[in-house]
Fold this sequence. Notes:
Layout: E1 5-7, E2 11-13, E3 20-22, E4 47-51, E5 63-66, E6 73-84, E7 91-98, E8 101-111, E9 117-121, H1 140-149, E10 158-164, E11 168-178, E12 184-190, E13 196-201, E14 204-212, E15 221-230, E16 241-244, E17 259-260, H2 267-286, E18 298-301, E19 310-313, E20 323-326, H3 341-353, H4 362-380, E21 384-385, E22 397-398, H5 407-410, H6 416-434, H7 436-445, H8 455-470, H9 475-484, H10 488-494, E23 528-529, H11 544-556
Parallel strand pairs: 14-17, 16-18, 18-20, 19-23
Antiparallel strand pairs: 1-10, 2-3, 4-9, 5-6, 6-7, 7-8, 10-11, 11-12, 12-13, 14-15, 19-20, 21-22
Protein name: Peptidase MA superfamily protein
InterPro entries: Peptidase_M4/M1_CTD_sf
Signal peptide: 1-19
Amino acid sequence: MRLTTFAILLFTSSTSAFGIQYHIADFDIPSPTLLGFSHPKLSPHLRTTLSLRNSSSNASALEVLTHAGSPWDTCSIQTKKLWVGQRAYQHQRFHIICHGLPVYGAFISSHGRRDQVVLVQGAIPGAGASFDSSEGVLDEAVVREQMISYSMVQPGKLVYYYIHGENHLVPAYLYRFKDERGLPWEGLYHGFTGEALAHVPLHLQAYEGFSFLENPLQSELEKVSIENLSTDQDHLDGQRFSVYGADILSDRAVASENLFDYDPENEELFDQVQAYYTLERAREFFGQYFPLEEDPRIDVFTHTYLDNNAMYLPAISEQDVGSIHIGVADNIFMQYLNRDSDVLIHEYSHHIIYKFLTATWGESLTLHEGTADFFAYVLNDDPYLAESILVGSPYLRTAEIESDRKHDLEASYRGSHLLGQFWSAILWDLYRDLGSDALEIITDSLNYWPSQAQLSDAVLALVISDKELKDGQNVCKILELSLDRGLYEAVSVTGNQGCDLKDKEIIRFATEDSNDQSEFDNDLACGAIGLRGSSSWSLLLLTLPLLLWIRRSGNEA
């Protein structure tokens, strides 16, 4: 995660190098201190100097002068000796704590016993804030929240400093405003370019509720944070999702004193809370890899008329919103349909993938389904999908398919959901080998998918992303994994990319037109993507022979 911290100064209007006269404001809490100026005028660099005066052993007693205006401010520091060299000229390095807060990137460095003026660099997150710095990383959202709450903001225009990127200071302006719905916001804007640096919704606040993290069979019921809800009501209406029952007229979950306190026995209302929490968790994950700041809200319907099924419907116009529909399990073949987080994550994954891949038939649908399965595997850290929803069976689908099964040998008689397992297996194998690097490659590769992508397009996209991001270090691994899962046709189109694939038999497997919409067969479509008014509603059918085949496959795995 990219570290972004805020340091705050309040100014009064006058003139100086940048048209303002500045001084530190008198707050009721300790004023924020910047290790950030080499002279009383503004500097774009975060730095100051001090002299150890042959007192490196007593460095914790020093005060760091910060030239933050008139009068100068001081930062009483506590230091922690990080390392002492063994040679004649010892090198001592100290971590700086200012007002009880770690100064990230700041250190005092001393060589030997010589008096030395050393450079101190760093950034203090925010006055009075309390952070868990055990790993040295701050949550940007937490810092942003603290920036607002500790700055004693008053209505109107205030001038701030924003510590941007690599210890770089810029003046910024804070405004309070209301959006077209009349909801209040605060915006932080670059003082020179006017660029929006941050938008903080003042109308959203955190609630609490109860949820299963993964599903009722593998997780305990936990009290969780229900975040990003509007403050003007106590329903599950947020900036990103609105959650309902079967339709907008159904009873809705309501918070009492900021708590959605529902027992799992109250299925319809409890499951609304479960859905909101799970989707917020998925949204946070995807927000690390895709620009979702302006993503429109999604309507989520639980316990709908879709028997034993779930579906994502994309928006059909700018005035429309996308929607997720989770049906009702019959408790004969299926159970916990609204409570298995894999189902919800899979559906929301369709929303993300649809931004790149709009075709929903043939190999395009195979990619949709396999990629959506993969994201669910990653978020719940196992290669099995929806382990709780099939009565008497261990899971719905998996990336751990048998090594002797090959995509091209089954493509003529399997439906897109089951064929998607081969694609999710490739992605999971890559993720298992490369970890976070694989996630970076996979999410970036979607940018290279055409709107009606085939498997060969997707394999090539992985190759391109790896070359762009990792200098092609994993190209041969990508092709080998694709061949291991039987994507012979796709790899033959992509080519060997200079890899030695002689030991891999590449079969040109003759198949029917892979984008023929008549391909839809008796495929278990839990986790389908549909279009309003399209024939894809037929994907909702579930046949007993297919269910039994899945059970056998699951039990053999």
